[in-house]
Amino acid sequence: MEKLVIIPTYNERENIDLLLDRLLALPFGLEVLVVDDNSPDGTAERVHARRQIEPRVHLLQRPSKLGLGSAYRDGFRYALDRNAEYIFEMDADFSHDPDAIGGFLEQARDYDLVLGSRYLDGHVTVVNWPLSRLILSFAANLYARWITGLPVHDCTGGFKCFRRRALESVRLEQVRSDGYAFQIEMTYKCWKRGMRIREIPIVFVDRRAGVSKMSGNIIWEALWMVWRLRFGGLIE
Questions:
Q1: What is the pLDDT of residues 108-163, one digit of tens each?
Q2: What is the pTM for the complete model shown?
Q3: CA-CA distance, 57 to 50, in Å (whole number)?
């Protein structure tokens, strides 16, 4: 296993088959790990059926809805245990374009962490979001950069490619946050450990099917967590 795309899912039956089709058709020999949190809509059953005919599809079934950060931590351990070199984070809802993966892999030859940015160099590349959510996201990134000093434009984005050495530099058992906060924390810890980080522009499109997982708890967690990063509480 060289290149693994990790996709956390909860009620993504409407999207997962087409997304797997798109990823497996790319000319990069990708493997895909779906980490499903006991979706009641049968998402895991769809992935399990695909596994029977496609060995590049993998599935981790978890007993309940345990959260985005927890799903990625389990996925990262799965990837490291199987010697993956390039490990992607990607949403299941087509907000992240599978065709952008080639650009990530090109940059990952020279960088340890490649981030897909919605706000690079003053350009906003978000499609179909309500203005209120766009303002919230943009302001959250300004806030996170101001508090932590992170030298990236999009701290909260979830389309990323880690080189193996970047994930190995982070003590995953010490990564405690979820949602937006998880994305900030992982990037911050890689940066603090001297990993080379590159941002590339992506176009982010609001989900075409299913229901957003955004909540007030996710926002509040990010607001307080950046202060813990700033003062050293989460950099073990």
A1: 999 999 999 988 877 788 887 778 777 877 788 888 888 888 999 998 889 999 99
A2: 0.87
A3: 7
DSSP per residue over 93-140, as a string?
Answer: SSSS-GGGHHHHHHHHTT-SEEEEESSGGG---EES--HHHHHHHHHH
CA–CA distance, 140 with 162 (Å, rounded to integer): 23
> What is the CB-side half-sphere exposure of residue 117 using CA atoms within 13 A?
21
Exposure letters 207-230 (e unless 16+ CB within 10 A, then b): beebeebeeeebeebbeebbebbb
**In CATH, what is the architecture of 3-230?**
Alpha-Beta Complex (3.90)
For the chain, the DSSP string reads --EEEEEEESS-HHHHHHHHHHHHHSTT--EEEEEE---TTSHHHHHHHHHTT-TTEEEEE-SS---HHHHHHHHHHHHHHTT-SEEEE--SSSSS-GGGHHHHHHHHTT-SEEEEESSGGG---EES--HHHHHHHHHHHHHHHHHH----S-SS---EEEEHHHHHTS-GGG----HHHHHHHHHHHHHHTT--EEEEE--EE--SSS-----HHHHHHHHHHHHHHHTTTT--
215 sits in the region (left: phi over 0; alpha: psi -120 to 50; else beta) called: beta
